[in-house]
């Protein structure tokens, strides 16, 4: 699965707002998760205190590129480092109706409704999953490697990030700094699509300017991006096929619809496996054929990736001027359609 990131873990704000309400009850979600996160932040050390000088240089250069050259918001994010004993930060639960792509949402103080809920303990995520499945929902649990606290805290780096290739680390840092720069309350899909697009294109520009188009790093990045695009295209084709089925759900009984849904997914996975060698250059997506895919999984791709190519089309019309798109995004306010505001600001 593509590395879908989360732009904000609502527990940070919840723990601030609700600590007095929840008291010290161990069962309180906000306290249990928030205390864990605050513990990570408290043990963060300045980045320059670690011994990996190459990693320090790379992070600082990416930050400089993002904030000085792309003109994302200046911040102290990614200037601290946390040693952690796993290769992900949190487990995140998402859910959707079984017979449509209607996503389940949770409400949190300050940030409002969110289509996911994060847990630092995988067992807690499993309990949440069981509760949602009892409500007859499709549920998906995924690991995330980063999130943004929107400038409320200094977002740190984690030890597993030292294994990332330069373009992967650039994508991660730029993606999260976009969220710290532009956040439209109540517009989760827009926020995620914007950060996903700028993170990807920003990382490409970073590798191009730092390593050159003839470099091995640039070739590896293009191969990875090409495979990612092919995978997303395949998922979106599957989503489109299921959309047609769900559009006619009033004319078919639910049991038959769910059977047809499973058949469509199974057929797509079989086709994916058969065509894998001709589609992809690496093994990153090979396990897709064996996964128990459901609407909650597919809805994540609806959330993060614009099926209508809005952002890529906008980028091309701007003359591939990423700075102009970022500057236009900074002008968006909470009233009105953010896409329309972005386009109007870019071409006015």
Q: Can you characterise this structure?
A:
The chain is mostly helical and 348 residues long. The protein is 55% helix and 9% strand. It contains twelve helices and eight strands. Strands 1-2-8 form a three-stranded mixed β-sheet, covered by helices on one side. Strand 4 (106-108) and strand 5 form a beta hairpin. It is globular, with a radius of gyration of 21 Å. The protein starts with 10 loop residues before the first helix and ends with a helix. Residues 7-27 have low confidence and may be disordered.
Shape: globular
- Major beta sheet summary: 3 strands, mixed
Write down the Rg.
21 Å
The overall pLDDT, averaged over residues, is: 88
- N-to-C order of helices and strands: HHEHEEEEEHEEHHHHHHHH
Helix content: 40-55%
Give the N-terminus to C-terminus distance in angstroms: 38 Å
Structural class: mainly alpha
Strand order of the largest sheet: 1-2-8
Low-confidence stretches: 7-27
Number of DSSP-assigned strands:
8
């Amino acid at each position: 699965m593509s590395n879908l990131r989360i732009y904000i873990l609502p527990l940070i704000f919840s723990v601030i707002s609700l600590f007095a309400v929840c008291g010290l009850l161990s069962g309180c979600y906000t306290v249990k998760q928030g205390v864990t996160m605050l513990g990570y932040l408290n043990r963060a050390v300045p980045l320059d205190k670690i011994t990996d000088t190459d990693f320090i240089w790379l992070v600082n250069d990416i930050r400089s590129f993002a904030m000085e050259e792309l003109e994302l918001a200046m911040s102290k994010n990614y200037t601290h480092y946390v040693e952690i004993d796993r290769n992900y930060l949190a487990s995140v639960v998402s859910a959707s109706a079984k017979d449509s792509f209607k996503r389940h949402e949770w409400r949190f103080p300050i940030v409002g409704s969110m289509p996911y809920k994060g847990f630092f303990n995988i067992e807690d995520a499993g309990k949440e999953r069981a509760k949602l499945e009892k409500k007859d929902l499709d549920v998906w649990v995924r690991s995330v490697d980063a999130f943004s606290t929107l400038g409320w805290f200094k977002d740190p780096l984690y030890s597993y990030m030292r294994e990332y290739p330069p373009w992967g680390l650039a994508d991660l840092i730029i993606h999260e700094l976009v969220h710290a720069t532009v956040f439209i309350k109540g517009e989760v899909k827009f926020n995620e699509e914007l950060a996903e697009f700028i993170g990807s294109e920003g990382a490409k520009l970073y590798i191009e300017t730092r390593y050159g188009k003839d470099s091995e790093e640039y070739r590896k990045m293009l191969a990875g991006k090409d495979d990612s695009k092919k995978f997303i295209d395949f998922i979106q084709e599957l989503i489109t096929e299921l959309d047609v089925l769900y559009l006619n759900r009033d004319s078919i009984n639910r049991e038959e619809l769910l059977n047809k849904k499973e058949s469509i997914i199974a057929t797509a996975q079989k086709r994916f496996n058969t065509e894998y060698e001709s589609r992809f250059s690496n093994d990153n997506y090979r396990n897709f054929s064996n996964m128990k895919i459901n609407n909650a999984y597919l809805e994540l791709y609806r959330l993060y990736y614009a099926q209508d190519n809005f952002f890529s089309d906008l980028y091309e019309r701007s003359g591939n001027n990423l700075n102009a798109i970022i500057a236009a995004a900074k002008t968006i306010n909470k009233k009105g359609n953010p896409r329309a505001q972005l386009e109007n600001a870019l071409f006015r």
